[in-house]
């Protein structure tokens, strides 16, 4: 029962992350915020570090087409061409149609949710090109520390890195964040970094950020952050 409660807390935490939609940008523009990345039709997988009670927990989202399956696992072909075997928990919930693990079939497009290396406790059958919109509802509070999201299209596979935390130090070209799980991360900023939130849509120099701000940064791989979203001034 304790494991099931933990899984539910993690699902609710992810719902909270998905609910923070701060606007889509064109593909040629800065990397998109986390909610838009997870809702992208090109989503292949994501790993999110959450700290709902202060202790870090890893949540994995895998999205792909079922290539083969057993009662205990799914083999998914993901958007970036990767084949991934996802173990499925006994009694895992299935949303969408058809419902029930036994009714899953080859060729279906699904998304799975699992805690670390544990079996997936949730499978969503995708009726459209993106994760189901109902995942945007029922949020509690954000517990994100950081996330890696792999998105692919016809021309490229991109890894986006998202960091969220309180600003503890500011330099001309970087911010140092204290993240929810206690990790301190220094994030380089692009010269033309876009800032959203209070004063959104403005380009802002790093010295104008203040200690104590709660922010979310988005990077394209190891590049400097092209976007900073101010969650709390």
Question: Poorly predicted ranges (pLDDT <50, ≥5 residues)?
Answer: 9-30, 135-141
Total DSSP helices: 2
Secondary-structure element pattern, one letter each:
HHEEEEEEEEEEEEE
Total strand count, please?
Answer: 13
Mean pLDDT: 81
Instruction: Assign a percent range to the helix content.
Output: under 10%
Shape call: elongated
- What is the fold-level CATH name, i.e. the topology of the domain at 160-232? OB fold (Dihydrolipoamide Acetyltransferase, E2P)
In terms of DSSP E residues, the strand content is: over 45%
Q: Specify the biggest β-sheet.
A: 13 strands, mixed
Rg over CA atoms, rounded to whole Å, is 18 Å
What is the SS-derived class?
Answer: mainly beta
Structure commentary:
By secondary structure, the chain is mainly β. The chain has a domain at 160-232: OB fold (Dihydrolipoamide Acetyltransferase, E2P) (Beta Barrel), CATH 2.40.50. It is 9% helix and 48% strand. It has helices spanning 2-18, 34-38, and strands at residues 43-50, 57-69, 73-77, 83-95, 109-115, 120-125, 144-152, 157-171, 174-179, 184-196, 202-203, 214-220, 225-232. Strands 1, 2, 3, 4, 5, 6, 7, 8, 9, 10, 11, 12 and 13 form a 13-stranded mixed sheet that branches.
């Amino acid at each position: 029962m304790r494991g099931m409660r933990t899984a539910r807390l993690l699902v609710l935490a992810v719902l909270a992350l998905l609910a923070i939609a701060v606007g889509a940008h064109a593909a040629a523009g800065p990397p998109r915020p986390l909610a838009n990345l997870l809702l992208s039709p090109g989503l292949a997988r994501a790993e999110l570090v959450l700290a709902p009670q202060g202790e870090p927990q890893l949540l994995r989202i895998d999205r792909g087409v079922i290539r083969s399956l057993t009662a205990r696992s799914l083999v998914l072909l993901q958007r970036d061409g990767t084949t991934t075997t996802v173990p499925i928990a006994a009694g895992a919930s299935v949303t969408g149609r058809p419902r029930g693990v036994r009714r899953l079939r080859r060729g279906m497009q699904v998304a799975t949710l699992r805690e670390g290396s544990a079996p997936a406790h949730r499978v969503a059958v995708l009726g459209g090109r993106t994760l189901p919109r109902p995942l945007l509802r029922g949020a509690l509070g954000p517990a994100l520390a950081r996330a890696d999201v792999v998105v692919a299209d016809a021309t490229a596979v991109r890894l986006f890195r998202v960091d969220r935390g309180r600003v503890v130090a500011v330099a001309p070209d970087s911010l140092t964040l204290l993240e929810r799980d206690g990790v301190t991360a220094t994030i380089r900023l692009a010269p033309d970094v876009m800032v959203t939130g209070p004063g959104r849509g403005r380009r802002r120099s790093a010295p104008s950020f203040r200690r104590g701000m709660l922010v979310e940064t988005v990077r394209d791989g190891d590049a400097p952050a092209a976007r900073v979203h101010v969650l709390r001034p």
